[in-house]
């Protein structure tokens, strides 16, 4: 039965949800592990929108594509704010676009992003993405055991080259460390409901041994990591302007507006922080899926052999002739939903939906995992099955494309989504064309398959995946020197 709550003073009806306790509300209801699964369970009991109140903060979780579209897209003027995290001021993160409140500064950043990351202009970045995919193939031939480091390296280096025109060949470049650490700090510090200081602001003044104030032990590292990235992007943007380097379109805005270097560098920091880990985590899903599903791997390789042939590596022009590989990319984005609850939006005005009151300042989360694991749309959703996106050997447009869910919604939709999808496609196609991927054997000769244990946090990933890579042809092994040394890739 449905427990609908009435605010005694205003006689308003909040959406239904689990019964909480006095004062703390639903604090103890929020599971720390895979909360998206619990929210889906609750939605079967309470309906698609669930309401919780945690220490006076209103939280709503939307569990269906319809509710998400109705609110985040159709009513985007009201549902595009972000909540005010105390962590933003503790870590001086006002520059980070993902966390920005809905308003003029955010609008200005968003306009710049659209100009330089829209789906037309990103085609200009494809040569860089292709070059980096080939560099990854080369690195995998030489040191397959370091496949995760190499993958992270080429993704970070692609973003850096697109933004600044700076090509880095050193996997130990300090930029990569800044990017990784800053993203990790963001993941730990910004999962709604995970830190008590967001509810009890006085905890910021308490010593770290005080219950609930242990975040203070981690604060200096988070601060140093996020500052490191910001300082790096600021210096790069400034020197690009000063030296008037012939760099990519993205920095051009900076060159014409020196005064705006700070906001340009902030924008770059946001790209790097939001972009490097998300694409990397999607590729971790790919590696795990390939180890577990040799049949899928084989089918993709047959398609690549047919379309690309044995004497070259895949290119973007091949994409439209590779429906199975494209379906495989979609399934990687769906199967493990790396931002399972999206990045929370917040309401900037009171609103009524379906008869329920959603007050101004409510944190609203889209259960992306529930949408992408809805068995009505994706039968047997726990299974990795690219075929679900195909009909008559072509992409079936009737099946919801996971990129339209996993990269968020409405005015806050991920501006890097087209860029990310291209990177993921070219890397997956290049690797599958070049290598057979399998599970390494333990000392008894038994394959070590990934157990698919996920990390917890705002962004999740398969924690432990091990693979071996075997070059599929003499051509690949021979190309490696050429690929590694030459710039003609
Ligand atoms: C598979 C890869 C990616 C995934 C799954 C992803 C997912 C997301 C999600 C869920 C959001 C929040 C959307 C919302 O509030 O509704 C977001 C925002 C954002 N993403 Fe991505 N992203 C990816 C790659 C990238 C890349 C490559 C870049 C930059 C080059 C990027 C830059 C951003 C920025 C700047 C925002 C903030 C937008 C705003 O708050 O207005 N992302 N992303």
Automatic annotation (TrEMBL):
Location relative to the cell: Membrane
Amino-acid positions noted as binding heme in the UniProt annotation, renumbered to this chain? 414
Quote the cellular component terms of the Gene Ontology held in the record.
membrane
- UniProt keywords, alphabetically: Heme, Iron, Membrane, Metal-binding, Monooxygenase, Oxidoreductase, Signal, Transmembrane, Transmembrane helix
Which segments does the entry list as coiled coil? none
GO MF term list: heme binding; iron ion binding; monooxygenase activity; oxidoreductase activity, acting on paired donors, with incorporation or reduction of molecular oxygen
> Does the record bear Kinase in its keywords?
no
Cofactor names: heme
Q: In which pathway does it act?
A: Secondary metabolite biosynthesis
Give a yes or no for keyword Ubl conjugation in this entry: no
Could you tell me which InterPro entries the record lists for this protein? Cyt_P450 (IPR001128), Cyt_P450_E_grp-I (IPR002401), Cyt_P450_sf (IPR036396), Cytochrome_P450_fung (IPR050364)
Q: Which coarse location class describes where this protein primarily resides?
A: membrane
Q: Which family does it belong to?
A: Belongs to the cytochrome P450 family.
Its recorded name reads: Cytochrome P450
What lineage does UniProt assign to this protein's organism? Eukaryota, Fungi, Dikarya, Basidiomycota, Agaricomycotina
């Amino acid at each position: 039965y449905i427990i609908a709550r009435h605010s005694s003073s205003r006689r308003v009806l909040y959406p239904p949800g689990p019964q909480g306790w006095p004062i703390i509300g639903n604090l103890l209801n929020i599971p720390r592990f895979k909360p998206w699964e619990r929210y889906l369970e609750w939605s079967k009991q309470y309906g698609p929108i669930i309401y919780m109140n945690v220490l006076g903060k209103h939280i709503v979780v939307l569990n269906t594509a319809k509710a998400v579209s109705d609110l985040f897209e159709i009513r985007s003027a009201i549902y595009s704010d972000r909540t005010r995290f105390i962590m933003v001021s503790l870590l001086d993160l006002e520059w980070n676009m993902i966390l920005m409140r809905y308003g003029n500064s955010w609008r200005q950043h968003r306009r710049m992003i659209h100009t330089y990351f829209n789906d037309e202009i990103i085609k200009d970045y494809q040569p860089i993405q292709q070059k980096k995919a080939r560099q990854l193939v080369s690195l995998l031939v030489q040191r397959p055991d370091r496949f995760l480091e190499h993958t992270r390296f080429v993704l970070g280096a692609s973003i850096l080259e697109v933004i600044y025109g700076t090509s880095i060949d050193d996997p130990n470049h300090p930029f990569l460390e800044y990017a990784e650490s800053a993203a990790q700090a963001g993941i730990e510090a910004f999962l709604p409901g995970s830190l008590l200081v967001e509810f009890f602001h006085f905890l910021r003044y308490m010593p770290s041994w005080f219950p609930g104030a242990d975040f203070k032990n981690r604060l200096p590292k988070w601060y140093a990591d996020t500052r490191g990235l910001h300082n790096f992007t600021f210096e790069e943007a400034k020197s690009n302007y000063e030296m008037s380097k012939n760099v990519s379109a993205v920095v051009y805005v900076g060159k014409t507006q020196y005064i705006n270097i700070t906001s340009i560098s902030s924008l770059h920091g946001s790209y790097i922080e939001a972009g490097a880990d998300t694409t990397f985590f999607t590729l971790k899903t790919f590696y795990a899926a390939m180890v577990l599903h040799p049949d899928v791997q084989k089918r993709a390789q047959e398609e690549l052999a047919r379309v690309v042939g044995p004497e070259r590596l895949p290119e973007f022009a091949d994409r439209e002739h590779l429906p199975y590989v494209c379906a495989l990319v979609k399934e990687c984005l769906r199967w493990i939903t790396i931002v399972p609850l999206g990045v929370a939006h917040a309401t900037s005005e009171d609103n009524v939906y379906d008869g329920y009151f959603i007050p101004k300042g409510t944190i609203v989360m889209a259960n992306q995992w529930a949408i992408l694991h809805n068995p009505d749309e994706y039968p047997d959703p726990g299974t990795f099955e690219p075929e679900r996106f195909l009909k008559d050997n072509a992409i079936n447009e009737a099946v919801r494309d996971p990129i339209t869910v996993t990269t968020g919604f409405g005015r806050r939709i991920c501006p890097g989504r087209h860029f990310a999808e291209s990177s993921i496609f070219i890397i997956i196609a290049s690797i599958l064309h070049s290598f057979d991927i399998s599970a390494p054997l333990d000392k008894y000769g038994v394959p070590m398959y990934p157990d698919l244990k996920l990390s917890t946090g705002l962004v999740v990933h398969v924690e432990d995946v091990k693979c071996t890579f075997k070059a599929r042809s003499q051509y690949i092994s021979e190309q490696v020197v050429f690929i590694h040394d030459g710039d003609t890739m």
